[in-house]
Design a protein that fits this description.
Low-confidence stretches: none
GO molecular function, one term: acyltransferase activity, transferring groups other than amino-acyl groups
Protein name: Acyl-CoA N-acyltransferase
Organism: Mycena maculata
InterPro entries: Acyl_CoA_acyltransferase (IPR016181), GNAT_dom (IPR000182)
CATH topology: Aminopeptidase
Shape: globular
CATH class: Alpha Beta
Helix content: 10-25%
Number of helices: 3
Number of strands: 8
Pfam family, one: Acetyltransf_10
Structural class: alpha+beta
Mean pLDDT: 80
Radius of gyration: 16 Å
Number of domains: 1
Length: 175
């Protein structure tokens, strides 16, 4: 696989690409009944990213491999999330990779790029410590993936949108 990069979805067209990937992954592949179209209150504070292949593939549809939504607290928080008030916390959600890109370490690379972005875009002046946290709600079947990447379970299993989830957290240390 060629090099990959994190692309901020800063235009209507790029947000449409995020939504199209989510529809493929969450509705078509995983059977969710509805698609969250990013119209909830916390979405105003959220950033959206695409994982892009830097290959020179002439097929433009193959350029984007996945998407994720990232929001820094404070925002209206899910009752399952319990952020530490002394640590800058980001909530990662809607992490999705298209089926052809789910092997070869692309998910780990995507999260690594996102974690690097978080560290690069958090000022130490904002922090009471040098720790920045990333929290997420992992779906059943993906727990091991996140644990291998250093995320730690913060809750027991609960049902969200009809599927089992657990809350997970990873602390990143600023240099």
């Amino acid at each position: 696989m060629s090099d990959i990069s994190l692309v901020p979805a800063t235009s209507t067209e790029l947000i449409a690409s995020c939504i199209a990937i989510r529809k493929t992954v969450f509705v078509q592949d995983q059977g969710y009944i509805h698609l969250d179209e990013d119209n909830r209150p916390e979405d105003a504070a959220a950033l959206h990213f695409l994982l892009a292949s830097s290959s020179q593939d002439p097929d433009a549809s193959a350029r984007f491999m996945g998407t994720v939504r990232l929001a820094a607290l404070p925002l209206p928080v899910s009752p399952t999330l319990n952020p530490d008030p002394n640590t800058k916390t980001y909530i990662l959600s809607r992490f999705a990779l298209l089926p052809p890109f789910r092997r070869g370490g692309n998910g780990a690379k995507f999260l690594g790029l996102l974690e690097h972005w978080v560290l690069q875009h958090t000022s130490q002046d904002e922090l009471g410590s040098r720790v920045v946290a990333v929290e997420l709600e992992a779906q059943e079947g993906s727990y091991g993936f996140y644990e291998r990447l250093g995320y730690v379970r913060q809750s027991g299993e609960y049902v969200k949108d009809g599927k089992p989830h657990v809350r997970m957290r990873k602390e990143l240390v600023m240099e």
